[in-house]
């Protein structure tokens, strides 16, 4: 198997996973701090999706730390295929959650001008949480792309 930048068991892979954890946790934190987020199904789905992404990325970051400390090779076909499936599933869930939440934010901000009339409505927090979820998705997309190419090189 090829050693690609950002693959499992590499320093760049660990940094990608830490970035995914950090941006997913930040997205959850900002969304939970917003008032009345639980009224909207898309925002609840965003929190659930980012929570799953946080757990998945944290688990793989721990595995990367284990591999780096013990000089273990994580690039065998069975492990990499598990990484590919997990990354692609969480990537699709995260993209769907980010897009649906962005749709709700655009609806409130631009279409019905709800954010302008309701000054206590936390639209800025919703926007920041959605932006962070897209940052998370970009990092997941990079990870899933790299692991897919590692699996394809077998």
What does this structure look like?
Residues 32-42, 99-129 are extracellular. Homodimer and heterodimers. InterPro entries: CASP_dom, CASPL-5. The protein is mostly helical. It has one domain (11-152). The chain is 79% helix and 0% strand. The protein is built from 5 helices and no strands. The longest helix has 35 residues, at 77-111. The model has no long low-confidence stretch (mean pLDDT 90).
Which keywords apply here?
154 residues, mainly alpha, 5 helices, elongated
Structural class: mainly alpha
Shape: elongated
N/C terminus separation: 5 Å
Instruction: Estimate what percentage of residues fall within beta strands.
Output: under 5%
Characterize the quaternary organization of these chains. single chain
Arithmetic mean pLDDT: 90
Number of domains in the coordinates?
A: 1
- Describe the sheet with the most strands: none
Can you give the helix content as a percent range?
Answer: over 70%
The value of Rg in angstroms is: 17 Å
SSE pattern: HHHHH
Number of strands: 0
């Amino acid at each position: 198997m090829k050693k690609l930048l950002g693959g499992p068991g590499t320093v760049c892979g660990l940094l990608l996973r830490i970035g995914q954890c950090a941006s997913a946790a930040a997205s959850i934190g900002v969304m939970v701090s917003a008032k009345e987020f639980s009224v909207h199904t898309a925002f609840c789905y965003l929190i659930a999706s980012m929570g799953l992404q946080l757990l998945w990325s944290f688990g793989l970051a721990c595995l990367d730390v284990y591999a780096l400390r013990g000089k273990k090779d994580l690039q065998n076909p069975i492990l990499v295929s598990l990484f590919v499936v997990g990354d692609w599933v969480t990537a699709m869930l995260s993209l769907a959650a980010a897009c649906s939440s962005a749709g709700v934010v655009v609806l409130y901000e631009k279409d019905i001008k709800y954010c302008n009339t309701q000054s206590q409505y936390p639209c800025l927090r919703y926007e920041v949480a959605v932006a962070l979820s897209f940052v998370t998705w970009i990092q997941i997309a990079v990870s899933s792309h790299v692991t897919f190419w590692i699996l394809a090189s077998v």
